[in-house]
Amino acid sequence: MYDICGNRTDGKPLNCATPSPAVTPDRAFSLKLQSLCPTIVGDVCCTPTQFNLLRSNVQQAVPFLTGCPACLRNFLNFFCEFSCSPNQGSFLNVTAVNGANNAVAALEFFITDEYGRKFYDSCKDVKFTSMNIRSMDFIGGGAQNYSEWFAFMGKEAAPSLPGSPYPISFRTDVKEGNPAVTPFNSSVIACSDPSFECSCGDCPLVNSCAEPNPPAPSETKGCHVQIAGSQVACLTLAVIILYGCLVVIILGWWLMFRSPRKEMSSKERLNPDAQSDLANKAQQTDVDSQIRSPNELDRLDPKHQNHPAKENEAVSRLAGAGAPFMVTFLSNRFRIYGELVAYNTKKVLAIAIVITVVLCLGLIRLRVETRPEKLWVSYGSKAAEEKKFFDSHLAPFYRIEQLILATVPGSKDSPPPSIVTDANLKLLFDLQEKVDNVRGNHSGKLISLQDICLKPLGTPCATQSILQYYQMNVSTFQDASHAEFCFQYYSSSETCLSAFGGPVDPTTILGGFTGNNYTQATALVVTYPVINAVSGEGNAAAIAWENEFIRVVKEEIVGMAIANNLTLSYSSESSIEAELKRESYADALTIGISYLVMFVYIAFTLGDWNPSVAPFYVTSKVLLGFVGVAIVAFSVLGSIGLCSYFGVHSTLIIVEVIPFLVLAVGVDNMCILVHALKRQDLNLNLETRVGLALAEVGPSITLASVAEVLAFTVGISTPMPACRVFSLFAAVAVLLDYLLQITAFVAVLTLDFRRSESGRVDCVPCIHVGRKEPGLPNEQRHNPGLRQRYMKNYHAPFLSIPAVKASVLAIFFGLLFASIAVIPRISIGLEQKIVLPSDSYLQGYFDNITEYLRVGPPVYFVVKDYNYSIGSNQTNKLCSINQCDPNSLLNEISRAALSPQSSFIARPAASWLDDFLIWLSPNAFGCCRKFQDGGYCPPVDQCGLNNTCSECTTCFLQSDLVEGRPSTEQFRSKLPWFLAALPSADCSKGGHGAYTNSLDLAGYDSGIIKASEFRSYHTPLNKQSDFIDALRAAKNFAKKISKSLNIEVFPYSVFYIFFEQYLDIKNTTALGLSVALAAVFVVCLVITMSISTAITIIFVISMIIVDLMGLMVIWNIQLNAISVVNLVMATGIAVEFCVHITHAFTMSTGDKGERASKALVLMGEPVFSGITLTKMVGVLVLNFAQSKIFKVYYFRMYLGLVVLGALHGLVFLPVWLSVAGPDPLVEQKLPSLCNRFWRSVATRRPGSIGTDSAGK
């Protein structure tokens, strides 16, 4: 095939078919030939024109192979022998001739199977780093073996496309003994040959590579024990053993106390008949032993005169003899304070109102933070610092606008059909036209997608869409078959190049397929990358376009998809923030209803129903209930106002959740205060009774409130801003609520009792209807309520039975140990869908992301302070081409990509450094070129028609380099050329576009590049655990490589800042709960001055928290900053279920069983109606909220807390106190307030008549 005999219609030269003997080249031609084809020595079978054509053709492939010298040399030798070998007649056979010009029209190329296999093996793993794919995808059409590669090279090129001008049939079926044919079997250099050694990434067989095949990922399942062929966790086994031992102990205890005498004695403690003697004695020694009337109108002294003796006696008995100093101190101070408030109600109200109004004025400075990165990224986050470094030194990750168009299954059991059809592609063109016409209004200027989109190589947007196979032009569309062709040849066929000049990977534009079966895809993914600014103000134009984009999609595009039996999900970069804002208004009605429901409940609970004393509209407490709810509302507003004064931004969670939370927490104390006031001696004046009521319940209310405030305050230590600010606002709100309760509410309570005792109508106190005289039979004066009778006659006696005690202990400890066993199964994370409103369009979008996407988010490995000077050797520590260190950064990334199950890295990294070194190499003779004056010369195909580049030469000779590497000055001078060079067919390694933002060249003249990145991709991440594990794996990888190379490397991906918190969430949880429990313990210890009492309270609270965590596993509530804060706050809230009964227990006398029963009868009803039911009412309303985060993290968790708290407080705690309760804090010889109340209750049968001190 000597010389050129003609051209195809598209201008491609055709070789002559006439046989010709080999010729001897002249010296100049021989030197040129040797520079490219060193294996051709002596005579040749080609002309200088043919050689120039050969050089021009192979130079397009050279940049793909320069990183692997063995592959490059084999590739050049193959085409040199094909074009110029003097023996080509022995392995080439012309099978068709163009008669017009005697040019070759078809050809056979005989090769040996051994040669083809070795040739392919030397090149099959070579990487094209800028695209993160194999070079074989370009030079071999993605061939998986040598037969496919040769078939690709022998395929006749279509007009105007690169490739062979005629078909070439590569044959290995040569019959033995055929003297006319000698199959081509030139020597092949293995990629592992030391003389032409490739990098580990391009040739895993290189001897210096540390691990050619990565080890299988180890699965760490923790400690397990093999029992009966099943794997049992060590923790589970330990819990089972411990619980078994505990059950044996409980059973032994029950056997000791199960005798009829003991059991009867237990019952007799609560039997009114058996206690008659004690009751009669109590009547003689304690004239104040009867129970207070539950109705404040039922007075013995209509003149409201005090009995000094009774008052002094009541005061002296409040704390009981021997009571701890702090209890006595608080009781006395609360008594004095209560009387002071009762005597100065108007002044107290005025001061409270003024202070509240002043605090609420801070609402003027209210600012609501909705930016996700400001809400869910921890303070001091390492990932946040790395993101800031990445954004400031390189470029912020682009904004993403996305459409996902998917097919619908024909029936329930049938799979969805393929979406790659002519009709669907035509529809997509119509949808794209709608998007192109979107115009956002920013400051009076209309913004189009072209104004804001990412344009790496020029004017066209880098839209990732299947339409790019048609250059986004509907006029080039004929049918879907071209797209199917491009799925296979997207990186090698020029007809498949996008409008912006780069190839489009089908994995980024298709969804719902398996493996490489792209034609079976069920979804089309269209992504619009938009330029992202570091500052929020710089994105204003993009946000304006995004808002209009979402509107157009909702109103027009969705309908078009549905009309064609397709589904469409969509999102913009600002969608999450916009939906979070909308969420704040979605639950306004829920908040209003909750306050209304709580108001009705409080008014009903606090009021009395005793027609024999006064009409219901006199004894009702509607106005008092309204004031109680108003106090809660103003405490929330005051908290927000106070924090806003100091510039603390609020969040939507604060606006939506804290009102519920404070409502559920704050109403309890009001109920307890009202019930305490009703229990006081009606022979005392109202002011004295108010003081005594505060003295009675003030210490326990204070303890519970302080514990709650401290628990909320501990939440401030949480690093996540949204939860930290939430805890701050909640702590201040609960504190304000407590202060308003003991000031404003006590004042209003006093006024309301005055109103009812004077016979005035509730809500309209100006109307006086009078009241009946109190000289009523005692049956009507001292009839206890239904809940109180239940506690006295049923609940307490039942729990005092030894068998019941044993069962209660076994059941509750069983729950405790079961929860401990399942706690390790709590999943970690926070699903994005949970945070959004349930009717948000993003709900379907996130579902489709999980279902259809087959590529994960990009991950960048960022190198800080890269020293490119020749003496540092850091270049070889980073690169992955030949002569690079086997354990270099890029080689390690390639090795990690071989085990994606454990590394979560999907492919080798795109390397600007590798491509720059190849671009600079003299072997890539079509890339780095210079004019005679030393200026940059572009590749030939970019020079135009005036042939201005004919005199250009390569930038350097091989001898100019230092061991194949550029010197410091060569690196410094040519790096800007590389970053400005446009990629083209003659030199695909140009860095413009692909690496424009991959380096920070500020101050690089010093020999240091402050920041550079190498881009790879994560595997598809579908679950929260995938994101967390991917982040952990990337950080561990970077830490390991930084230590081994002594170069600072960190990974960066857009989701890292939101998931970093989960790497240490378990330790954060343990620390937060420990500090909260310690704070509650200190408060209990200071107030009760009893270590055993404090330990008892902390023990029960810990049981509630552990059981709540076990409930999280059952309800699939994930562990995250929100649930951690909830658990910490639950520690404070759980105090209320324990402290009142425990306080009453410690202030009672008798044996432990008697004291437990007394405490339960005294405080059981307030704990049930005043704490449990009030919280239950506030929590139940959360179930009707629009946001899933309300339902999952607030409704479920707080419902579980209330139920568990009530069960532990009203069932387990009395039993535990009767068995292992602390010693009494008062001396046995003097009756305490609890004993005085108990004797009053014990002397009366249900519905019986109590007797006063006079025996009437």
Question: Could you describe the 3D structure shown?
Answer:
- The model is unreliable at 212-219, 260-306, 773-782 and 1228-1256 (pLDDT under 50).
- By secondary structure, this protein is α+β, with helices and mostly antiparallel strands.
- The strands form ten sheets. A four-stranded antiparallel β-sheet has the order 14-15-11-16, sandwiched between helices.
- It is 51% helix and 9% strand.
- It folds into four domains: 3-208, no CATH class; 397-571, no CATH class; 581-743 and 786-827 and 1065-1227, no CATH class; 861-942 and 951-1052, no CATH class.
- A hairpin with a 4-residue loop joins strand 3 and strand 4.
- The N and C termini lie far apart (135 Å).
- It contains 44 helices and 26 strands.
- Helix 13 (345-360) crosses helix 23 (622-645) and helix 24 crosses helix 42 (1152-1180).
- Residues 273-293 have a biased composition (Polar residues).
- It is a multi-pass membrane protein.
- One of its GO terms (cellular component) is membrane.
- Residues 267-311 are annotated as: Disordered.
- Residues 587-751 form the SSD domain.
Defining traits:
4-stranded antiparallel beta sheet, single chain, NPC1_N, 4 domains, sterol metabolism, 1256 residues, lipid transport, membrane, signal, alpha+beta, disordered C terminus, elongated
Oligomer description: single chain
Strand content: 5-15%
Number of strands: 26
The Cα radius of gyration reads 42 Å
* Overall domain count: 4
Query: Approximately how much helix is present in the residues?
Result: 40-55%
Largest sheet: 4 strands, antiparallel
> Strand order, biggest sheet?
14-15-11-16
Mean pLDDT: 83
End-to-end separation in angstroms reads 135 Å
Q: Decide which structural class fits the backbone.
A: alpha+beta
* Stretches with pLDDT under 50, minimum 5 residues: 212-219, 260-306, 773-782, 1228-1256
- Shape category: elongated
Protein name: SSD domain-containing protein
Membrane topology: Multi-pass membrane protein
Pfam family, one: NPC1_MLD
Subcellular location: Endomembrane system
